[in-house]
Specification:
192 residues; alpha/beta; globular; seven-stranded mixed sheet
């Protein structure tokens, strides 16, 4: 994959320091360990606010990670498009089916190291069920899923255990969602 803010030497060090100070100032704590794998999908949940992005980037710096994230393609238009890509963004056109899962699986196969954060809700709005793309990318690429979280009630962010898919989506999804059942998003009414 391309270079991002996370592997830009001097900038990385400065943002790591700013992230630690900012999180501490606002009362946030890190929990868990950086995933011990070279390639994995990160569930980014609950995703209920634009602040999730800012906190996720800050936590990535604190965990010394080089992450990529999937976001709607409109975020990448105009003068800020290059900045969003430098922040690790991968544009996604949600208006049409375009083989995105297979593209991401192929990307995983072509990289020696890759961590991609995918919000399973697919939006900040309340949804009745999670989108399955994160699961199918991980299963198709044969990589684990890191259970990443931001719990606004406890002001804690980090990682739970790594999850390895079995191919039984319904059963696996139930186990994954059990981990998140007590998490509180910034806008809790939007997290199902």
């Amino acid at each position: 994959m391309r270079h991002t803010i996370f592997d830009t030497p001097v900038v990385n060090s400065c943002f790591r320091l700013l992230s630690r100070l900012g999180l501490k100032l606002f009362g946030w704590k890190l929990e868990g360990q950086r995933p011990n794998a070279r390639k994995y999908v990160i569930i980014a949940a609950p995703h209920t606010s634009n602040w999730d992005f800012v906190l996720t980037i800050a936590f990535a710096f604190c965990f010394r990670m080089n992450i990529f994230w999937m976001g709607k393609n409109t975020l990448f238009k105009g003068p800020f498009g290059g900045i969003m890509k430098w922040l690790g963004g991968i544009p996604v056109d949600r208006s049409k089916a375009n083989g995105l899962v297979q593209q991401m699986v192929d990307t995983f196969h072509n990289c020696t190291e890759l961590a991609v954060a995918i919000p399973p809700e697919g939006t900040r709005n309340k949804v009745r069920q999670w989108k399955s793309g994160f699961y199918h990318v991980a299963h198709g690429a044969g990589v684990p899923i890191a259970l990443g979280f931001l719990d606004y009630k406890k002001k804690v962010g980090g990682f739970g255990p790594m999850f390895f898919t079995t191919g039984d989506y319904e059963s696996d999804l139930k186990k994954i969602q059990e981990f998140y059942q007590h998490m509180t998003g910034k806008n809790p009414e939007k997290f199902a």
